[in-house]
Amino acid sequence: MSLPRKNSEIICFCDLQYRWSKRSTDRGVEVRIELNETPDGQQIIAQCPRVFRPDMVEDIIEFGRENGWKPEEKGEAITVRLTKRGLGVIN
Q: Is residue 4 part of a domain?
């Protein structure tokens, strides 16, 4: 399911546009990111601490790309967690 245009933002990273949105959860903030031109592609879901800054989105995109996230293709979402030690994939 693609992200709604309302309550989401666009970021340009490495000459590609990504759409992202965040929402509060019991444990912190959940960030969902997808390729803007391929809204039905694979998403990456990041579980982040309560103190979330928009510049963290670039780190999530870069980590996802390096770890098998392919937003231009359909597929199950990849879930990652951001901690003090950095980003890690959740199985």
A: no
